[in-house]
Design brief:
single chain, alpha+beta, four-stranded antiparallel β-sheet, 28% helix, 33% strand, Regulatory protein MerR, HTH_59_Firmicutes_type
Length: 277
């Protein structure tokens, strides 16, 4: 066991009744990041030693939510960076239900723009992958999820019915959309259904063990004014109007309402590609 010096400790943040601690071994000079509700607090109260290497989960914990762990580093900067990374992981999925404990895995997302198609891929360790696509044909959400594993997480870590774990999946998707600036024409909001979540507001569909889907609820989202299009696609309003007059859009893609041109969003994707904002 090592004798350690506590350098920085976060109490009750980001998780109530847990400590996120940065410390240093006085003999070797190595640094560590320790977290959890159990021994990081005990360590600061009694000056206990900590394991030489690797991760540590106390054997006396009865609550399944009570995860503790430690990781060693050569420098203070590396230890601080690990703590910041853990907080980002925590923020990505509420209560860390999708990624129990602080492992090297975390919920990650990638985005890809190809011509008139944009795709966001969300990967949840062990639980599977969601694919959100927007193109001239519309909005598509597909998933390859291990629902049995998700339910097992729900049974262990969620305060409520196991299927409420899908709220964490929805929250992770919504955060990825917002953080990446993904060009989704609307805001992701949801509520619990009998077996998962259903989208509300701008979208319909949902995520549960039977299906994964997302579609526009309000047809007004399917059309935009030339001014709105100019802001989203980074093209001058006058240029869009000129394209309309030149017949770059099909007759069923544009119409005039009270002196204002309305253009189908899919047509703008087809002509200008992925929105710039």
């Amino acid at each position: 066991m090592k004798k350690v010096e506590i350098v920085d400790r976060w109490e009750n943040f980001p998780v109530e009744n847990e400590a996120y601690t940065i410390g240093r071994d006085s003999e070797s000079g190595r640094w560590f990041f320790a977290w959890g509700p159990d021994w990081p607090r005990k360590l600061t109260r009694f000056g206990d030693g900590v394991p030489e290497d690797g991760w540590y989960v106390p054997a006396n914990l009865e609550e399944p939510l009570a995860h503790s762990g430690i990781e060693w580093f050569d420098t203070e900067e590396e230890a601080l960076r690990a703590r910041e990374g853990a907080i980002r992981c925590f923020d990505t999925v509420s209560n860390r239900n999708l990624v129990p404990g602080m492992d090297v895995d975390a919920v990650i997302y990638t985005t890809e723009n190809r011509g008139d198609r944009a795709t966001l891929t969300l990967r949840i360790p062990r639980a599977g992958t969601l694919y959100l696509t927007v193109d001239p044909e519309g909005i598509f959400l597909q998933g390859n999820l291990d629902h049995a594993y998700l339910y097992s997480l729900g049974e262990r870590y969620v305060c409520g019915p196991a299927h409420t774990i899908y709220e964490d999946v929805a929250a992770a998707l919504a955060e990825a959309v917002e953080e990446s600036g993904f060009p989704l024409p609307g805001e992701l909001k949801w509520e619990l259904s009998d077996y998962g979540i259903r989208w509300v507001g701008d979208f319909v569909g949902g995520i549960d063990r039977e299906s994964v889907s997302l579609d526009l609820e309000n047809p007004l989202w399917e059309v935009v004014t030339t001014k709105e299009a100019a802001q989203e696609w980074g093209v001058a309003d006058a240029t869009i109007r000129q394209y309309i007059l030149e017949g770059k859009f099909r007759p069923d893609e544009v119409r005039k309402s009270g002196g204002t041109w309305l253009i189908k969003r899919g047509a703008l994707w087809r002509v200008f590609g992925v929105p710039k904002r």
